[in-house]
Amino acid sequence: MQNQNRRIQAVALDMDGLTLNTEDLYEEVGQELLARRGKPYRNEVRQQMMGLPAPQAYAVLIQAEGLTESWRELQQESDAIFERILSERVQPMPGLLALLDELDRLALPRCIATSSTASFAKIALGFSGVLPRIDFILTPDDVVQGKPAPDIYRLAASRMKTSAHQMLVLEDSSIGTLAGVRAGAHVISVPSRHTQGGNFEGARHVVPALDHPAIYEALRAEA
Fold it and tell me: I need a labelling partner for 103 at 20 to 30 A (CA). Which of 74, 77, 178, 212 fits?
């Protein structure tokens, strides 16, 4: 049973680059997508896309590279490339499974709040074996505005029957961190190699991995 004296009453996790290694796979997909068009996948463009919902992310790519396809066409092509590598290559990020064990021990509800589509999130989490250990998934389809707006994390807190300031948000991107901070959550940023150097202003801590003591201390702290 949940300890109502604990400061943190629920946990919301980003997916890409935080829960799963899908940012590594996105990089490969982006490289192939643009190689088909005779273009390199530039790091500065990838950084601008990271953490955004698909329509905005592909809009950045279209503008930066002068592409003629719609964002939906590019997403469909990317999804087809993903299908080829996802089942064999997706895996939990280091420290995730032990963290989920701790959430089980503390009886804390948890959800995924991602900028990816619901169908992709379910497939990726399913292949990785993480899906049965998550209570529910929220995506941009569930809110009016995606990250960096706070909507998805406010909804996460509501669905887990707590207030945002009693919810721990774990994020790897500056855009996701901003969404959690704007929601009023207790945010800890865990940058991946793709997001290091981003702006994590407002995060309580910026740590290198999910097994960092600061995360466990936040979970166990009393109100």
Answer: 178
